[in-house]
Specification:
The complex is a heterodimer of chains A (about 400) and B (about 260). With about 400 residues, chain A is an alpha/beta fold. Chain A contains 16 helices and 14 strands. The longest helix of chain A is centred in the first third of the chain and has 18 residues, at about 15-35. The chains are: A alpha/beta (about 400), B alpha/beta (about 260).
Chain lengths: ~400, ~260
Amino acid sequence: MTSKGRFGIHGGQYIPETLMNAVIELEEAYLHFKDDPAFQRELTDLFNDYAGRPSRLYYAARMTRDLGGAKIYLKREDLNHTGAHKINNVLGQALLAKKMGKTRLIAETGAGQHGVATATAAALMDMECVVFMGEEDTRRQALNVYRMRLLGAQVIPVKTGTATLKDAVSEAMREWTSRISDTHYCLGSVMGPHPFPTIVRDFQAVISREIKAQLMEKEGRLPDAVLACVGGGSNAIGSFYHFIPDASVRLIGCEAAGRGVDTPETAATIATGSLGIFHGMKSYFCQDQYGQIAPVYSISAGLDYPGIGPEHAMLHDTGRAEYVAVTDEEAVNAFEYLSRMEGIIPAIESAHAVAHAMKLAPQMGKDQLMVITISGRGDKDCAAIARYRGEDLSE
Amino acid sequence: MTERIRSAFQGKKAFIPFITCGDPDLETTAAIVRSMAQNGADLIELGIPFSDPTAEGPVIQQANLRALSAGTTTDKIFDLVRDLRKDVTVPMVFMTYANVVFSYGAERFISACAEIGMDGIILPDVPLEEKEEFAPLCRKYGIAMISLIAPTSAGRVATIARQAEGFLYVVSSLGVTGVRSSISTDIPSLIAQVRAASSIPCAIGFGISTPEQASAMARYADGAIVGSAIVRLAAQYGRDAAGPIGEYVSQMARAVHEL
């Protein structure tokens, strides 16, 4: 028996025996449907007619002028239906689950974007939906909790551990162990046991496929740098994937440093983590010397996760992608900057990528091209950012 | 070491209690283990706490957190076992998660297990597909790497059973650890699949709390494993748990040994 789903030394299937046949069945179904023209046609129709793809590649002229360096394009995943890139993966997995005869979707969510997307797909495809969300996050993202309920999903607040994303993942895994036959676990990022990191990446790869084609049309060439925020890393791998073979394209993942990588209140896995095994995969994790997973922190509920997807861990090992850490303060500044500069309010997650772009773009030449993936829109974050700035906003 | 595990199943059905080390402190754990040994435990599972135990229900999750907040570490647990092995001869296996072993250094961890007198190790998040990362080291140091089968293991039982060492942990039900009012899995059929492939002893765990359940389960197999019901006593009695847990173990062991 050999380990499957490896990205270099990372990945694998470190899960209870109870779930093994479920992931094997999922892999077989995926391998069957991924090359099935009818399935792909159905998915493309959903992407285009329901989610509003392709998402725009927008030239941010004011930001480009203001920063005085690279020519900046924004990949507008925030304009997708439900307001984030999460819908790409969810439509793919929900369609797959439906074909597998599953009638119930379960999911974890941090910021609530993946939960909302899953609840949306469940409504669309007439499936039952249960979303696990850290209790702390249900407070930070109350609006998204309401949206999920409005869409017909049941939201279960998770009180264990740090009551954030990692605990929501653990609880969703526990739930899946107890009910497998009618239930698909719609994992929200490029993490967990094989085949999830591959399936989620393939569904998100539409982002880089579009960027490549759109930039070719607008500029006739490849970008010099692609930036995206990284929690588990699904919008980042989606933004990077089709550029991996193009060595001239810098791929930069922006992690959440929280209050700083030299403080314990951080979620920057590549900067502060070490090799470990957790949530079904081998990868880098924030942990102590005994392998106890660290209680990470970020202002962004969506990046507040102590690990990173295994393919990113490999891209870091090989040096193909760079990973940088961005603090809460820098992200909040970028959140406000993009709002005023371009009239685009980014998700606080995406603002981490914008923050690094603000540092990097001025160092690049005017003839160079940068793409920043705006993975989601920031409406959901307004109350939290107002609080961060000392303003009590009642929604 | 694996010889000692075999002895637990010889001539009788085995009763296998579990306790989370360091809940609420390691002195209490030492007293509990000695009390289990004196009251008829045939093999003892020592849980090394993990921050995020994804295969556990709420009872053992909370025990893990209590143990970690009390400052329990892998090294302190190794010291505990060294001390216990001065007088406790019952076979003992660790139950923990892959990351606890991996982050310690798999070889360093497994060689330490052998040195302090452990007999085996159970890693619920290491299925057959990932076993080779740890199994060769376990063989090298004479530590049995215990495999698990579940009600959902269709098509995998024979392969797992043929590669199993020590004993086979038969998960009685879907879901996580925890007390259950009834167990609906077709256990006899699961055990029959194992028997057809291997002579490995089978112990059934997950959901067992009463002598009646233990007896019913052990009737089909070679032993019964009880975790959450004991950990619940540990939570209830705190530092005074050794006595009540001893009484409970005695009652449960009697039910299993009577068969």
